[in-house]
Amino acid sequence: MSHTAHIPSHRKPRQRASKSALRAGVAGGVLSTIAVAGAAGPAQAEPVTQTIEMPTITSGFSTAVAASAQATQQVALDLETQADEDAAAEKAAKTAKKAHAEAVRKAEAKKKAEAAAKAKAEAEAKERAERASRTSERTTLSASSGSSDSGSSASAPSSSSSNVSGSAASIVAFAKAQVGDAYVSGGTGPNAWDCSGLVQAAYRTAGIDLPRVSQSQSTFGTQVSLDNLQPGDILYWGGAGSAYHVAIYVGGGEFVGAQNSSTGTVQRSLDYDRPTGAVRVL
Q1: Displacement of CA 166 from its chain's centroid (Å)
Q2: CB neighbours of residue 264 within 10 Å
Q3: Which of 17, 101, 188, 206 has its CA 20 to 30 A from that of 221?
Q4: 270 has a pLDDT exceeding 60
Q5: What is 95-138 written as a DSSP string?
């Protein structure tokens, strides 16, 4: 037996010492770390011991919030609907006003058109009556011109001067019967004339053929003074042989002539447009 057999194994103590040393080292390191942290860090606050209870949202509160949101949405919808209705009402009012104005305008236009149509109808009726009257007078004059050519003395129509007779009466009566007819350049009747066309037609009722134009008519006959005129004399404006207008003296200081497109055939005083001269054909 070894002399060391009664002695416990010497390895175990070393192991215990080693573990003790290790534990001591770890403990010392931990204590050192705590000491350093305590020295470097701030003082630790006291732990919170009171618990704060958060309010609980109940189902009643949620319903109230939802109802409030719905009410707000409904108010907004009502406002939008009211705005649309107001805009529609304003548009309808404008449309109605415009329609009323248009109706008034059409009514006035219709009234004017009816008045114009009535006036036109009356004027046409009057013109037809005047034409019929002139036609009747022309027929009478044509019938009386034959007896004048045979040498008998024909009485002047009611439209002629009381002291005019024979061919002069026919010429004067025909000229007066055309008063109111239109003036048309180159016109020779029966309802539109120019100045020389009217004079030529009037003289034709007495069986006398005159030249067609005023220049030739102003020299067809004997020149007479304007102070010694007789019904039926031809009046002219401008020079003899170069006259630009002619008419017929009907007595009483008046003449009948197809003046222009504005006045037509008229009966006027010599003072209305003083002629240059006159010729006597009869």
Answers
A1: 61
A2: 17
A3: 188
A4: yes
A5: HHHHHHHHHHHHHHHHHHHHHHHHHHHHHHHHHHHHHHHHHHHH
Unique residue bearing structure tokens 């003036």:
183
What single DSSP character describes residue 86?
A: H
Structural contact between residues 249 and 231, judged by C-beta atoms closer than 8 angstroms = yes
Closest CA to 250 of 238, 267, 236: 267
CATH label of the domain that carries residue 118: 3.90.1720.10
- Separation CA 100–CA 112 (nearest Å): 18
Global pTM value: 0.46
Q: What is the mean pLDDT of residues 10-24?
A: 51
Rounded to a whole number of angstroms, the distance between the first and last alpha carbons of the chain is: 208
Domain count for the chain, please give it: 1
Tell me if 145 sits within 8 A of 151, measured CB to CB.
no
- Hey, which residues does 257 pair with through a beta bridge? 266
Asked, for residue 143, whether it belongs to a domain, the answer is: yes
Task: Look up the domain containing 150 and give its range.
Answer: 82-282
Query: Is 32 domain-assigned?
Result: no
Q: Is residue 200 part of a domain?
A: yes
DSSP string spanning 234-281? EEEESSTTS-SEEEEEEETTEEEEEEETTTEEEEEETTTS--SEEEE-
20-24, 68-72, 222-226 — which is least confidently predicted?
20-24
- Report yes or no on 43 lying in a domain: no
